Amino acid sequence: MEKVARITGIRATDVILVGGFGASPYLKQELEEICTDFDSTLRRPDETKSVTAVVQGAVVYGIEKLRHKEVIRVVEVLDSFGVRHLEGPIEWIIKKGDIVLSGQKRVVESRPFWYNAGANSRGRQQYSVYRYFDRKRPLRSLPDKWATSYKEMIEVGVITTGPGNDLGRFSSRSHQERPSRAADELHFEGMGPKVGPVKWRFTLDGVSLKVELFVRETVVGSCNITVELSNSKPAGDSGQGYK
């Protein structure tokens, strides 16, 4: 995995365990630990089914494919998708090279965070969803610098929180509590009440990407975006927020 990342510049986000390798609990545990070290996910399809994994047309495993109707295909995301936290940096939730198994959905959530309430919590708020792909450097999954990346990013969706979702009602002042300083939470510095916890949820299937904004586990806005995968035809982008 380290060699692949060094040569191609692409991080392996998923490792699919097929065949006899998955029969040994010890080997499976060892592989899971290795994948964790590389920030990757070890996946093993249902062991009762014969699996054919196909990546960009290359058969990885599938001697029995002609005798079984169930074939699981692996498709790769060709672009990276992220959102911007108000005036803060863009957080890339789905990255180029992430994979989706056919017939399944991939759900990725951002780190929970809080931000200053103030004027930013009142009325309608808009949040942009961006797509990134450097056509000159196709192996690169993320921009190097924010100062120049805006030229390579495209706004593909907008989430608008409706009047009924006044974010001020989620502030720490409204709920008489203070946000914790948990390690998995990103805090925007400043005085006054905070809105949160806030998180983004990206749900990816073989056709589209659904982006949802959650505050205290309540959906306050969403949009749907058409995505291009490794074995699909190019598709346009579309986004629709709450009205």
Description:
The chain contains three helices and 16 strands. With 243 residues, the protein is mainly beta. The strands form five sheets. Strands 9, 10, 13, 14, 15 and 16 form a six-stranded mixed beta sheet that branches. The chain has a four-stranded antiparallel beta sheet with strand order 7-6-11-12, with no helix packed on it. Strands 1-2 form a two-stranded parallel ribbon.
Give the distance, in angstroms, between the N- and C-terminal Cα atoms.
45 Å
Let me know the average pLDDT.
68
Class computed from helices, strands and strand pairing: mainly beta
State the assembly state of the protein chains: single chain
How many discrete domains? Answer: 2
Radius of gyration: 20 Å
Shape: globular
Strand content: 25-35%
Largest sheet: 6 strands, mixed
Number of H/I helices: 3
User: Which stretches are low in confidence, meaning pLDDT under 50 for 5 or more residues running?
Assistant: 50-68, 232-243
SSE order in H/E notation? HEHEEEEEEEEEEHEEEEE
Q: In total, how many beta strands? A: 16
Helical residue percent band: under 10%
